Every structure is written in C-alpha cells, then in structure tokens.
C-alpha cells in the first residue's frame, strides 16, 4: 500500500520561513484534515509537496514510497500519482478544459509502467460527461477555457472533476470548501467522499470549515501553527477547537 | 466539417516546417542573371509579351525604386543585397489549367506540400506559384459561368485588359514605399480575382506560393475586385526551403471592396528563416463594404507587413487580425492601418504576437480619422506573449484623430509566460514543454479559431512545432 512520508520539512519563500519542520505520514485510503489559523503554513505545505516553484525547500524530505518527491518536477510528481486541488485555480485562456484534461490523462497514462492505451476524444468525452453530471457541472464547460470566467464554486467543482478524471494515488485539497454555497458544498463533499471510496486514494484536506466533516469522515486531524504540526488526533480534537479555538494548541506548544 | 483523413495527413505534411524544407531540381525556361537594371525589366516584359503601357509602368517604377530610401524605422533590412537576387525566374511556358500538364518536378514539389490536389476538395479554386510564375490556376466551373474571374495576374492583363488597367495600381501606388516600387517594377504572378455583382463565392479560393531557388526574389501581385453586393474569401499559403543565403519576398496586394461587398483575405505563411518578407497589402472599401484581413505570420528572417483598410464611404467596415511568431534571429514587425475617410465607418485591429529564444515582435499600427468622419468606431487590441527574457516585444500604436465624434478603444498587454499557469498545467502531469505549448496555443486561439478548419489544424501544428525543444 503506497505511503506518503514527510519528515522535518522546511521551506521558505524569499527570506521568509514558512514551513519549520513538518512531519506527516499518510497511507493510501486514509483521509487527513489539516486545520489552523491563516498563515500557519497549511496551503504552503500542499504547494511545496506538489513542487510549486515559488518555494524553496531548505531541509527535510518528502517521499512517495521510496521515490524522493523533492527531486521531481511538478509533472513527474503528478505522473507519480500526486494531485493538488488549488485554493485559487489558475485561468488558462484559450485552452479548452476537455482537451487539456484528455492530454493530461493520456500523458499520465503513458508515463506509467503498465501503460494504458490513450483515450480517444469520443471515449474521453463520455467519461467527462459522466463525471460532470455527478458534480452538477454543465457539459458546456468541457469546451470552455480553463477556469476562465468560472464562478468560485465552478472553479472548485472543476478541481474535483479533474481529480475524478486523473485518479491520483494521493490528492491534496486546498480549501476545496471555500466559496461554496450550502448546496454546492454538499455536492462537492459527497462527490469527494464517493471518489475516495471508489479510488481509495490518500487524501490530505486543508480546511477552515468543520462543516466539510459532516460529509467526509477523516482518519486524522492535524493542527498547524507557525509552519509546524502542533497537535493531532481524531474527531475529538474538533470539540477542543470549537471550545477554545486554535490558540489553545499554540499555547500548549 | 469533417475532413477526410487523407486530406488531413496531407495538410499536416504541408504545415510542418521540416516537411516544407526540401529543394527541387528544376530546369527553368528562363533565369534572369542576378541583379536589377532596365535591361532585365525589358527582358521580363518581353518574355511576358506585355503591352507597351505595362513596360513603361515598370520602368517608371524602377526609377522610383532607385530614388526611394530603405525604410529604417522597422526591421533591420541592411543585409539585403539587391545585386545578389534573381528577379525573374520562369519555370514553364504558361499557366496550366490542368494539373496533369504541370512539369513533373514542379508537380512533385506541390504534391509533397499537399497542394493543390487534396485541397481542391474543399476549395472553389486553386492557384500555385513557383518562383516567378503562376504555374497552375483553376476555378470551379459554376463560378466561371457566373462570371467570376480567378486567373494569374499575368493572364488577366492579357485576357481582361480594360478591367485590369482600370484598377491596377489604384490602391497601392508605385511610390507608396521602396518595396511597392520594386514590386511594381518586377511584379510577376499573383492572383487576379473579379467577383461580379451579387455573386457569393461560398468556398475559399486559394493560392500557394513557393520559393524553391536560392537567392530568389518573388514579387507576386494580387488584385481582387469584389463588385457590389458580392463576397469572396481568398487564402494564401507560402513556404520556401532553407538556404544559407537570403531570399526576398515582396508582394503587393490590392483589394477593392465595392458597395455592400465582403472580402476576407487569409494568410498562413511559414517562410524559412532566410526569407525577407516585405509585403504591402491594402484594401479600399466603399459604402457598407466589409474587408477582413486575417494574417498569420510564422517564419521568415524579417517580416514587415501592415495590412491596411481605407474606409472611403459611409458604413464601410475594416477588420485586421494578425498573429505573429518570432523565434531565434527573427523579427516580425507587423500590425495594421485603418484610415477613416467617411462617417459611420468602423475598424478593429487585433494583433497577437509570440516571441521566443531571442525573437522579436513589433506591433506597429495606425488609426487615422479625418475631420468630418463622424460617428467612427475603432478598436485596437495588441497582446504580446514572451516566452523567455531574451525575447523582445515593442508596441508602436499611432492615433491620428481629427474628428471629435469618434469612439476609440485601445488595449495593449505584454506578458511573459506565467509561472502560475505553467505550474497549474504541470501539476496535472503535463511536461513543461506541453504546458508552454498549450499556453501558446491558447493565446493564439482567438485568431486561429477564425481560420477555415483545415488551416486552423495546420496552424496549431505549426505552433506546436515551433514550441518543440523550446523549453529546458
């Protein structure tokens, strides 16, 4: 069973330290939630794991099984099975979502050891329509430019759609619940849960909003502060947060 | 529209730089020695059995060419050696109407490029120019019956002398610039199109221009007359093989769009990197007429081209949309001009350029509105995308507005390929090269989308090819 193992990870942007020794271990099939105040380093952790060029890793390791992720480009990490649902998905003008995703899927397929054959346009469009339907996305979005003119909610749904199509071994969801209204939150959360059950990937979810836990049952909850994980536990930790806020964890440290 | 697979394959072949980069050994009927003088012009005119007035026109133009200074405000043209160019190369005796009659070597060249046999399937007419002459021209029978003329410009001079003389040189005067003068002196080949009143040519007419010889100068001259209420779409494609010494392509295109007529002129050019491409293209548009230039420039060493619309009468409309790609050692100096001479006229200039590996793109444009041309609307958009810090992009928009009652919109963006966009696409498994190619294709797509399907496929392939090996 694949494992994602992060040890003592430090990272900076410019001269500012953002991660100060994060250690985390996730097995496939597990769901981990990372919570914490704004600026605690949650989003940075996910971006660094995906290989964002904005950050410099100064110490520590991140491995997918025996593969050293820090040696790989973002493309190679994706091909190795990682996926990041962005907090602020990027607009790519003039590139149709459907064409892009098919290229991405076929590229990932062809990079794998047991190569699956490339999907033909018609076959892929069928798959897209099926997954779009589950997320209540208008099929017309297939030929729209990536995230161009999408509402906040549509962007988040599109990220989940991409996860469903690309079938990663580990997916990082960065505030996938922000900007969603109650109905959309329900659809998105349920769909994440369904995809997880079907594909058995490891999930690391960064969130501010405990309501996502109404639909997704985590194996572990981590609290981050000042670039480190300062507490972890099961759902019981939520009651503590509700009662005393994140401050209690920080003081304890 | 579905394209037969075979056609697609041939088009794809035609599109790739490497596929176009071959030379054919041909036995030319006549090759003028290098350099230019009155004798060569007389010989050229004699070989073409031209009327006296055309010879005089040419000789006068030659004088003007000698007097005119080289333009120094655009691309670097200082390396052009006018004495090292063949100004006239005649590959066969006359333009053929039957593909079978074209000499085998030339036929092979166009067959390799996939032209014109496969393309005949989705075109109303086809022309092919090899070196100085149109070696082949054909037109669908039903159009010929309706009075449509689609011939080589040389043939039109003989076959339709009055129509020819009435319009030739009226849109682009000889003295317009040094290269319009040069073209006027040594023009050869090109297409002549006349569409009678009310006739709509539904499928595009196409011409393909091929330079094959080393140190060749190609000076085709195209004249399009769309009579009242008619419409036509003309498409030109251009290629040449790569040589170590330079060739010159210097065309003049004149278009007359009469009342309520519509003309679209589409260019997909992919010259090799040793070709200077210095072209004067201009359209005169009359009442409620509509001219649309769609100009895609890849390749060449230096291109200077600013398709223009002169909006002469009320309600005339001009659109100029262009796409330029400059790679290593290339300079694409392009844009457009809209001259508003009448009220209620409108123009749109959209220019998109991409530069990489130290390539340079320049947008150069002019919008002019004279006093009394009220209620004019004009919009200029220029977007430049630079793929690396070594590349360069400049914008020179000129507005000369003498009337108050005018609506002007101008937007310009210059962007480097974004780290965030690359990271987003790469996080889905695409390589950096794939991601950059997608971004470039996406940037170009508003222009590419307007090409006929077959050419859009070709252009996307060309862009992808240009991007190969460009990253990392």
Structural features, described:
Chain A has 8 helices and 12 strands. Chain A is an alpha/beta fold and 253 residues long. In chain A, helix 5 packs parallel to helix 6. Chain B is an alpha/beta fold. In chain B, strands 5, 6, 8, 9, 11, 12, 14, 16, 17, 19, 21 and 23 form a 12-stranded mixed beta sheet that branches. The radius of gyration of chain B is 21 Å and the shape is globular.
Secondary-structure blueprint of this entry?
The complex is a heterodimer of chains A (253) and B (472).
Chain A (H helix, E strand, L loop, with lengths): L2 E11 L2 E12 L3 E6 L5 H9 L5 E9 L2 E2 L5 H7 L1 E4 L6 E5 H15 L9 H14 L10 E2 L5 H15 L3 E5 L7 H18 L2 E5 L13 E6 L2 E6 L2 H9 L2 H6 L1
Parallel strand pairs in A: 3-10, 3-11, 6-9, 9-10
Antiparallel strand pairs in A: 1-2, 1-4, 4-5, 7-8, 11-12
Chain B lengths: L4 H11 L1 H4 L9 E2 L6 H10 L4 H16 L21 E2 L13 H10 L11 E6 L2 E7 L1 H5 L3 E4 H7 L1 H7 L10 H9 L4 E5 L9 E6 L6 E2 L2 E6 L4 E9 L7 E3 L2 E6 L4 E10 L3 E11 L4 E10 L2 E4 L2 E4 L5 E10 L4 E10 L5 E10 L4 E10 L6 E11 L5 E10 L4 E11 L2 H8 L5 H17 L4 H15 L5
Helix pairs in contact in B: 1-12, 3-4, 4-9, 10-11, 11-12
Short summary:
The complex is a heterodimer of chains A (253) and B (472). Chain A has 253 residues and is of the alpha/beta class.
Q: Characterize the biggest β-sheet of chain A.
A: 6 strands, mixed
Number of helices of chain B: 12
Provide mean pLDDT of chain B, rounded. Answer: 89
Strand content of chain B: 35-45%
What oligomerization state is this entry in?
heterodimer
Q: Based on CA inertia axes, which overall geometry of chain A fits? A: globular
Order of helices and strands of chain A: EEEHEEHEEHHEHEHEEEHH
Give me the side-by-side strand order of the main sheet of chain A. Answer: 6-9-10-3-11-12
CATH class of chain A: Alpha Beta
Cα end-to-end separation of chain A: 33 Å
How many domain units of chain A? 1
Helix content of chain B: 25-40%
Strand segment count of chain A: 12
Number of helical stretches of at least 4 residues of chain A: 8
The profile of the biggest β sheet of chain B is: 12 strands, mixed
Number of strands of chain B: 24
Q: Uncertain regions of chain B: pLDDT < 50 for 5+ in a row?
A: 1-17
């Amino acid at each position: 069973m694949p494992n994602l193992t992060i040890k003592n990870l430090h990272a900076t942007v410019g001269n500012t330290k953002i991660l100060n020794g994060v250690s985390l271990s996730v097995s496939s099939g597990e769901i981990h939630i990372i919570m914490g105040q704004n600026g605690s380093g949650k989003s940075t952790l996910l971006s660094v794991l995906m290989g964002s060029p904005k950050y410099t890793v100064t110490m520590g390791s991140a491995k997918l099984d025996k593969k050293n992720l820090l040696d790989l480009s973002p493309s190679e990490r994706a091909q190795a099975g990682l996926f990041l649902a962005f907090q602020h998905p990027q607009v790519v003008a003039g590139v149709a979502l459907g064409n892009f995703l098919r290229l991405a899927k076929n590229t990932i397929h062809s990079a794998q050891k047991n190569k699956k054959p490339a999907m033909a346009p018609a076959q892929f469009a069928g798959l897209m329509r099926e997954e779009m339907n589950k997320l209540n996305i208008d099929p017309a979005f297939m030929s729209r430019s990536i995230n161009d003119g999408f509402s906040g909610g549509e962007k988040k749904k599109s990220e989940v759609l991409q996860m469903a199509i690309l079938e990663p071994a580990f997916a990082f969801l960065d505030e996938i619940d922000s900007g969603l209204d109650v109905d959309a939150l329900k659809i998105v959360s349920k769909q994440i849960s369904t995809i997880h059950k079907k594909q058995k990937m490891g999930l690391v979810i960064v969130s501010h909003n405990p309501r996502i836990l109404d639909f997704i049952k985590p194996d572990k909850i981590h609290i981050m502060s000042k670039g480190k994980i300062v507490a972890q536990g099961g759902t019981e930790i939520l009651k503590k947060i509700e009662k005393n806020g994140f401050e209690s964890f920080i003081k304890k440290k | 529209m579905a394209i037969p697979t075979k056609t697609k394959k041939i088009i794809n072949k035609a599109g790739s730089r490497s596929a176009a980069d071959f030379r054919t050994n041909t036995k030319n009927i006549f090759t003028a020695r290098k350099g230019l003088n009155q004798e060569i012009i007389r010989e050229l005119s004699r070989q073409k059995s031209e009327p006296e007035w055309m010879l005089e026109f040419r000789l006068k133009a030659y004088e003007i060419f000698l007097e005119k200074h080289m333009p120094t405000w655009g691309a670097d043209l200082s390396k052009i050696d006018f004495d090292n160019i063949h100004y006239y190369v005649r590959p066969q005796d006359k333009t053929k109407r039957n593909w079978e009659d074209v000499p085998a070597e030339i036929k092979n060249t166009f067959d390799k490029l996939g032209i014109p046999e496969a393309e005949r399937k989705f075109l109303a007419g086809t022309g092919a120019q090899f070196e100085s002459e149109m070696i082949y021209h054909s037109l669908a029978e039903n159009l010929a019956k309706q009075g449509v003329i689609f011939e080589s410009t040389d043939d039109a001079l003989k076959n339709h002398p009055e129509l020819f003389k009435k319009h030739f040189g009226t849109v682009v005067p000889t003295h317009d610039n040094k290269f319009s003068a040069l073209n006027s002196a040594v023009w050869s080949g090109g297409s002549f199109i006349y569409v009678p009143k009310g006739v709509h040519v539904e499928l595009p007419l196409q011409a393909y221009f091929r330079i094959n010889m080393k140190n060749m100068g190609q000076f085709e001259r195209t004249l399009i007359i769309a009579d009242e209420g008619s419409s036509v779409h003309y498409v030109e494609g251009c290629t040449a093989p790569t040589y170590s010494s330079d060739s010159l392509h210097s065309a003049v295109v004149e278009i007359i769009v009469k009342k309520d007529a519509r003309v679209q002129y589409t260019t997909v050019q992919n010259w090799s990197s040793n070709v200077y491409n210095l072209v004067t293209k201009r359209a005169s548009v009359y009442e409620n007429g509509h001219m649309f230039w769609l100009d895609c420039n890849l390749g060449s060493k230096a291109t200077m081209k600013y398709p223009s619309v002169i909006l002469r009468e009320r309600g005339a409309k001009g659109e100029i949309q262009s796409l330029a790609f400059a790679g290593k050692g290339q300079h694409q100096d392009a844009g457009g001009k809209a001259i508003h001479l009448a009220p209620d006229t409108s123009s749109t200039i959209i220019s998109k350029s991409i530069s990489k590996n130290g390539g340079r793109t320049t947008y150069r444009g002019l919008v002019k509105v004279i006093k009394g041309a009220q209620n004019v609307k004009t919009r200029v958009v220029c977007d430049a995308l630079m793929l690396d810090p070594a590349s360069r992009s400049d914008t020179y928009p000129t507005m000369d507005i003498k009337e108050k009652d005018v609506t002007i919109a101008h937007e310009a963006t210059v962007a480097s390929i974004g780290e965030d966009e690359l990271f987003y696409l790469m996080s889905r498994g695409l390589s950096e090269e794939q991601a950059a190619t997608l971004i470039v294709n996406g940037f170009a797509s508003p222009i590419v989308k307007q090409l006929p399907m077959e050419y859009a496929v070709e252009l996307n392939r060309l862009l992808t090819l240009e991007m190969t090996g460009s990253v990392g």
